[in-house]
Amino acid sequence: MTTPTTPVHDYSHPGSSFDGYTSMMLQMYVETLNKYSTAQVLDVGPVCEENITYFAQRIKRIYVCDMFLRLSRNRHKGLPTEKVWEHLDYAPNSFDGINLWDFIDHLNDDDIGRLVNLCHTALEPGGMMMVTSFEEQSAPSKIHSFVIKDSYRLNFRLQNHLDLPCYYRSNRIITDILSEFQTVKSFIYRNGVREFLCKRD
Amino acid sequence: MLKKGKKPEDVKGDVYDKITEQKTVTPISHPETTTEETVIGEKISIEGDIRGEEHLVIEGSMKGNVEMEKNNFTIGSKGRVEGEINAQNVKVSGQMIGNIKTHGKVEITKEADFMGDIKAKSISVEDGAYFKGSIELEKEPHRKTALAAKSTTVATTQPLNEPKAQTAKNDT
């Protein structure tokens, strides 16, 4: 069982920087979705205006269910984590794509299993899911959203209102977690971000 | 239909099918000014549809549909609305369950608790908004035209791959 850890880097300090990067995964993902004029995508948050607009301009419809905020509120209310999954009540085969961002970094092993299973069901066969995860040694101490800019660039924005535990896992463990899917491509960046582009068979 | 300068107690029938609670009688702000904005106060509860030709702010609670295609509709931070909204621009700072349709902009603030589907020309959503739903933005016609023109030009030199046919999915 993976236990929550305390991230090393506090990027919220003045003068500290958390560099954005150009995402190869995002480019592959968006280019795939662009082939489908009726594509529908689910984003599990954090809610981000830029990302909503980016996808809404390119696909038929973007669905948003901010699971970060729901999980955070559940924790503050002392509610069991299981309750949070009731929000991901989408019908099977609903989406051509799912944006998971770094949500898995804030879930324990049991909850990740539940999440992956729900995403697998909600995704169409052949649908894509993009997952990011931080390496432990370079992860920010507070939650940031991945903010899509031009030319597949991702910047980060601090989400002070979110308070969730962090769980860091090796590449092998993450690929094992995602084994229900076919891993199309994975990337590791100098800023410590790992990307996994998955596909439902 | 709401008229400029009318107080809520003067308006009956088609606007307020039922006022279930009315502890204060000052829900309208600035009825004598030219802002043409009606405010339904915190302690007002409405059940029924609203059609109007001036801007409307809901600070109370409302269950019903809103039809005001040429005017703005706002749900204040203490407002609660359950219904379908068709307005020029919509701002949600309170709770809303239902769908929004507009040819203008939808603004969801960080205080909002929104569940529903949005169809709009543009959208702004603040970080921290409690949001569950879908967004469909109106695609700009000139972009389609430009793409169509480009496709026609390309088609003379090379065939384009047809997009994969997708079956319609249920909105959830």
Task: Please tell me about this protein's structure.
The complex is a heterodimer of chains A (201) and B (172). Chain A is an alpha/beta fold. Chain A has one domain (38-199): Rossmann fold, CATH 3.40.50. Chain A has 5 helices and 9 strands, in the order E-H-E-H-E-H-E-H-E-E-E-H-E-E. Chain A has helices at 24-33, 49-56, 67-77, 109-122, 171-177, and strands at residues 21-22, 40-43, 61-65, 95-101, 123-134, 144-148, 153-158, 182-188, 193-199. Chain A has a 6-stranded mixed sheet with strand order 3-2-4-5-9-8. In chain A, a hairpin with a 4-residue loop joins strand 6 (144-148) and strand 7. Chain B is mainly β. Chain B has one domain (8-155). The longest helix of chain B is centred in the last third of the chain and has 15 residues, at 141-155. Chain B is built from 1 helix and 17 strands. In chain B, the strands form 2 sheets. In chain B, strands 1, 3, 4, 6, 7, 9, 10, 12, 13, 15 and 17 form an 11-stranded mixed sheet that branches. Chain B starts with 17 loop residues before the first strand and ends in a 17-residue tail after the last helix. Chain A binds chain B through residues 35-40, 46-49, 52-53, 56-57, 60-66, 69-70, 73, 87, 89-91, 93-96, 145, 157, 159, 161, and chain B through 110, 122-137, 139, 161, 163-164, 166, 168-170, 172.
